[in-house]
Amino acid sequence: MKTPNSYMKIPNDCRPNREFKVISLYEGTDIELPKRETYFSAGYDLRSAETVVVGAGETVLIPTGLKVLLPDDEFSYLSSFLFGW
Fold first, then answer.
1. Residues in Cβ contact with 11 at an 8 Å cutoff, skipping those fewer than 6 apart
2. What is the mean pLDDT of residues 11-19?
3. Secondary element (H or E) of residue 20
4. Using CA atoms, how far apart are residues 48 and 31, in angstroms rounded to an integer?
């Protein structure tokens, strides 16, 4: 993870404790746990647990194979960003 510039002086322990775990159905697979790509990222990058093909106009559920443990005053929100250029 990239750390802030030295002038920012932000301690690593100021962020709430969050934990991602692989659910039992996907234990032993090569699922990547979500991570922040940079120190100041607002969210985590999440990948699918399986290859899924989504047809035009289709709505499908895509398994993550994960569960998340958050502090009591937080919630999880999942949003997709599809780039097709």
1. none
2. 64
3. strand 19-22
4. 8
